[in-house]
From TrEMBL:
MF GO annotations: G protein-coupled receptor activity; olfactory receptor activity
Gene name in the database record: LOC112124851
Keyword Membrane: yes
Protein name: Olfactory receptor
Taxon lineage: Eukaryota, Metazoa, Chordata, Craniata, Vertebrata
Keywords linked to the UniProt accession: Cell membrane, G-protein coupled receptor, Membrane, Olfaction, Receptor, Sensory transduction, Transducer, Transmembrane, Transmembrane helix
Subcellular localization(s) per the UniProt record: Cell membrane; Membrane
Family: Belongs to the G-protein coupled receptor 1 family.
One Pfam family in the UniProt entry: 7tm_4
Any single Gene Ontology cellular-component annotation: plasma membrane
SUPFAM superfamilies referenced in this protein's UniProt entry, alphabetically: Family A G protein-coupled receptor-like
Length: 311
């Protein structure tokens, strides 16, 4: 399994893991995964098509929602090949380079998701705290530049991860803990010092997710301060209602991510099933729930969906 002609002893393949001890039930387990993927892809494509077709929705809030939907599609499509091959076809081998590529895209889209949620909180902050200058501040060219900045930041932060893995030798069992490749999972299989990988991984998490979450919290503190200064109760409720969808998206994204990080670092004695389930919730639930929440809570998108089905 190990290519000893390579100076870094890279394995030819890694072994993916579904649910340990439940191999006989993998075909049944594949059914909910297929439902999740279909729901995520159809839901996010529907949101994109509705916003694309209706020129009235070509506004900053909906353009940022398009970014979130594209990112959610990226997360789903990054994990789909190995998850379905593991559970549907019992094909558990993944090539070393293919594993690194999947690892890059999973972490790339996860980092992008955090940046997009931060940008969406800035959008809500401007819309509520400075509504008269909303369209002047968030012009289309500026939105494009903001989107490019999120992509470049995510790419720059994630690119070193596969490079750091490439330098490590692997000389132990190549069985991963999931049906997809994640950086913490892959680096633990190395038979060398992984201090650099650990430190960089922790710094990347703090730099991206930590700073983004802090800025989102600060923006909502300022938003709430502005909302509670509004005299009219009806206007106060209307302003709060415009933020509910984004708050749900933030909670759906960050709560599972924080839980996974805590379990990885402090839950070594936790059953493997807990690690697998929480990682699955972190990766698979936001792409499914985000389009549902935005479709239900955003009046314009809800009306467009009803209009589309009525036809």
């Amino acid at each position: 399994m190990v290519d000893f002609n390579s100076t870094s002893f890279h394995p030819a393949t890694f072994q993916l893991t579904g649910f340990p001890g439940q191999e006989a039930a993998h075909h049944w387990i594949s059914i909910p995964f297929c439902v999740v993927y279909i729901t995520a892809i159809v839901g996010n494509c529907t949101v994109l098509c509705i916003i694309w077709a209706d020129r009235r929705l070509h506004q900053p809030m909906y353009l940022f929602l398009c970014m979130l939907s594209v990112n959610d599609l990226g997360v789903s499509l990054s994990t789909l090949p190995t998850v379905l091959s593991t559970f549907c076809f019992d094909v558990t081998d993944v090539a070393f380079d293919a594993c690194l590529a999947q690892m890059f895209f999973i972490h790339f889209f996860s980092n992008m998701g955090s940046g997009i949620l931060l940008v969406m909180s800035f959008d809500r902050f401007v819309a509520i705290c400075d509504p008269l200058r909303y369209t002047a501040i968030l012009t289309n060219p500026r939105i494009v530049r903001i989107g490019l900045a999120v992509v470049i930041r995510s790419f720059s932060v994630v690119l070193p991860l596969p490079i750091l893995i490439k330098r490590l030798p692997f000389c132990r069992a190549e069985a991963l803990s999931h049906a997809y490749c994640l950086h913490p999972d892959v680096m633990r299989l190395a038979c060398a010092d992984i201090t650099v990988n650990n430190i960089y991984g922790l710094c990347a998490v703090l730099f991206v997710f930590g700073i983004d979450l802090l800025l989102i919290v600060i923006s909502y503190i300022l938003i709430l301060k502005t909302i509670f200064s509004i005299a009219s109760g009806g206007q106060r409720l209307k302003a709060l209602n415009t933020c509910i969808s984004h708050v749900c998206a933030v909670l759906i994204f960050y709560i599972p991510m924080i839980t996974v990080s805590v379990i990885h670092r402090y839950g070594e004695n936790a059953p493997p099933l807990v690690h697998i389930l929480m990682s699955s919730v972190y990766l698979f639930m936001p792409p499914v729930i985000n389009p549902i929440v935005y479709s239900i809570k955003t009046k314009e998108i809800r009306k467009s969906i009803l209009k589309m089905f009525s036809r």
